[in-house]
Amino acid sequence: MNSRLPATPETLAEQAADWIVRLSADDPGERQQAEAGYRAWKQADPRHAAAAAHLESLLGRLDDIRSRGTQGPARQAIHSARPRRPPPRLATALALAAALLLPGWIALQSAPADILFADLQTGSGEWIARTLADGSQLSLNSNSAVDLEFDAKTRTVDLLRGEILVDVARDSSRPFVVSTAHGNIRALGTRFLVSRQDDATVLSMIESRVEVRIDGQEQAVVVEAGQSLRFGPGSENSLAAIDGEMLETAWQQHQLVVRDRPLAAVLDQLARHRPGLIRYDRSAIAKLHVSAVLPLNDTDRSLQLLANNFPELRIRTLTPYLVIVDHEKNR
């Protein structure tokens, strides 16, 4: 390790990644020596231990790499990148890149097949708009996926992930339905936003009205323009007033409008609109709520706005693909 380098978050992360590479050595003696050195490095400075903890949580499989003694992902990345041993800082950079890419690789392997093979989908930071076969307009924002099923009797959009804006073409003979894991939204001619979250679906009405049938409930709920409905397990399924015109404008301008939302939920939303990871302790920020308009096409600026409004937060960008959000009580 080059102890003469300044102890910035970036260099500490690189040093931690280099130790993780050494821990995946093929030779048992080399691994044992690396384990002893890694322990000593972490004990030498609390900042070392913090940097190590962040990267260990990213890799997730560090203990498995240690126990198997096989060539780990980080070491494989280095071997495949050069025929001879590269300079130490290049090896460190490659290790850090592998550490950051591994969670995405794991997520890709575990992604449901219906999302991987969805009819329409977007990546991080990508927004698309399409005209459907019936003339309806469908827009998807970042990290969204839908399946389409149109036939002579029905028009169905299955929202698998993310958020959509729908402008429905009138066709009284074929109901237009947006389906999620939490229920169905039925409309004849209308414009609305639908956001699928882990534990609920959020419907925001801009124009006209829809009928919502929530899974597990017999009674349908009618949602009018200027109203929203959050439904799903544990939700109250109650209507709330919204400014539909403002929400549509925010969509067109790629903005996130939130009112008294948990900070964790806001960070999750921002994470959908950027590559890499935003890491934070959900329990440490559970009491913080946000009311704001945040730019989704510049999530770095959004994070800075949050930091300006919450002095107790420290937001560090270790790389363009790794952001750490710390609360003062955890420092």
From TrEMBL:
Domain of life: Bacteria
Entry-linked InterPro entries: FecR, FecR_N, Ferrdict_sens_TM
Start and end residues of each FecR protein domain: 119-211
MF GO annotations: sigma factor antagonist activity
Residues of the FecR N-terminal domain: 14-58
Name of this chain's protein: Histidine kinase
Species the sequence originates in: Azonexus hydrophilus
